[in-house]
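explain this chain.
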Amino acid sequence: MQDVTVCKECGVPETFYQAHLWLNNGDIVQSVNQRVRLGFIECEMLDPLFNNVGDIIGMPIEQSVISISSRGTKVYLDQIVPENVQKMLREHTLDPQPFVDSTMMFCQLLGLGKYEFMGMRHEKDADDYAKMRILKPFSLPEAAGYYSAAVSVFAEGEHSITYEEIAPELYEFTSRQAEYSEVLKEAMVLRDYHHKDGDIELERCQTCDSPKAFAEYQWHLDEGLIVNENTGRRMAILGPELLDRLFEALEAELGETIPDAIVEAQRRIIKSGISTGVVGGEEELRTQLALRGMGNLQEMKMSPRRLLMRINNASGYYMIVGMVQGLFELTFDKESTVKWELSKEGDLQVEVIPSSKKYSYAEKGN
């Protein structure tokens, strides 16, 4: 990977902090397009989350995650890559290599893994393909979906992805022409984000103005990793808008039990002992949620009898609900039930109380 300039005070890569803004309502947006909201999350939780949801509902969701991620990412790419540029790439009148190189480098800066493009065939027939190798992908099905959408910039249409591990933590992804179901096409619609001022201000690095808390993170650029030095957990910049729409599209495809299944899957992950890094008292929790772009904590009350939390401008809300329930159960060693409500304005309220008896997931859902 080419040399990257980093802040001398906090160590954050220049391209990373120039590309993103941390605003005062617990949100992260792109500097060049503030209608696109982002999140800084523990990406190691994603595949266990998808696997747990599949176990709970009795069927794997991997292919659905790939297809929905691809559809959503394609909508996002269409917003930032002009149609005339896409047309020139498809007609071979524009050299794709600079676009490929810059995209792969940026993916590594975001913590998505190390990328190596292996080539493609684009003759607009059944033998077309594209291959990419990724070392330590942030999530296998989501990386496959992201790659499918990227291929569509060069080769119009929709693309299925297969992948295999060819060496420890090194995967080869291969695309082929395909079509998504009409359900997925209708369900995946991204919404522009419109900022509303809040009352949270993160402490800033005096040199680069990025959040000072980033001094606790280490960029391993040659592997495409961002690691929290306190927890040892891997982080990545992702679009919570994509995650939230992915879960909504899963609900549209697989049924109304999906929201409860996602919350339950996340609860199990937290109970298993995987640290989120979102710990501490109310002020520390407020800072950590804002650093992750997950919203602005307004209230938190917790005792062995009840946990109440209100977050304005929430994103990744199913994951937040499951996280909160899991943390309550870990703290007080109690089984629990959870209720939550998300307003039209994106404000989330969560209540967790001890359950009177142990329950199975099936009992909880009735």
Observations:
- DSSP finds twelve helices and 14 strands in the chain.
- Residues 358-366 have pLDDT under 50 and may be disordered.
- The longest helix spans residues 62-80.
- The longest strand covers residues 158-167.
